């Protein structure tokens, strides 16, 4: 089976996130996001270029959860797609685009947080391979492609 891929972006929330509702009553998250850009110099160092800013939207339950969890300045990674559309700016029709995120999370490389693994009440119940926890060893599932050696913790965590 092929690996399912989608477009992804990373950046930082540049405006205060807004939660609204469309004509169908669905929640809609909107924020401007920024992306930093760098040039690699011949000596291996980097020069920071001007950041670019774009529109980020999400819909339904993802929009509501994102509005609860994201603030201006947060670094994130999102999966989704770019949507191009026409808009009126200063009385002129212009072609523009926005990133429609289906999934979003804080950028682990730039954010410290704790994970709450208790199931959400609205989550769909499904069977999944057992994972190792302090009280339950992962003996029921072993990937045939990976060795069974433990992974050392990442530095700084």
What does this structure look like?
This protein is mainly beta. It is built from 1 helix and 8 strands. The chain has a 5-stranded mixed barrel with strand order 1-3-6-8-7. A two-stranded antiparallel ribbon has the order 4-5. Strand 2 and strand 3 form a beta hairpin. The relative contact order is 0.17. Mean pLDDT is 85; it is low at 146-152.
> Which spans of ≥5 residues are poorly predicted at pLDDT below 50?
146-152
User: Strand order within the widest sheet?
Assistant: 1-3-6-8-7
Taken as a percent bin, the fraction of beta residues is: 35-45%
Number of helical regions: 1
Ends apart, CA distance between termini? 34 Å
Shape: globular
- Helix and strand element order: EEEEEEHEE
What is the CA-based Rg, rounded? 20 Å
Give helix % range.
under 10%
Q: Structural class of the secondary structure composition?
A: mainly beta
Mean pLDDT: 85
What does the main sheet amount to?
5 strands, mixed, barrel
Please give the number of β-strands: 8
């Amino acid at each position: 089976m092929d690996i399912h891929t989608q477009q992804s972006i990373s950046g930082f929330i540049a405006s205060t996130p807004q939660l609204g509702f469309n004509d169908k009553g669905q929640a809609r998250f909107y924020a401007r996001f920024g992306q930093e850009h760098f040039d690699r110099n011949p000596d291996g160092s980097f020069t920071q270029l001007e950041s670019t800013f774009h529109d980020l939207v999400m819909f339904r339950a993802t929009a509501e959860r994102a509005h609860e969890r994201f603030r201006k300045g947060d670094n994130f990674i999102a999966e989704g797609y770019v949507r191009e559309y026409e808009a009126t700016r200063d009385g002129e029709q212009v072609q523009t685009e926005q990133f429609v995120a289906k999934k979003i999370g804080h950028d682990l490389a730039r954010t410290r947080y704790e994970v709450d693994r208790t199931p959400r009440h609205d989550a769909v119940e499904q069977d999944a391979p057992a994972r190792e926890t302090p009280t339950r060893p992962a003996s029921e599932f072993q990937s045939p492609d990976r060795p069974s050696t433990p992974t050392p913790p990442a530095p700084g965590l």
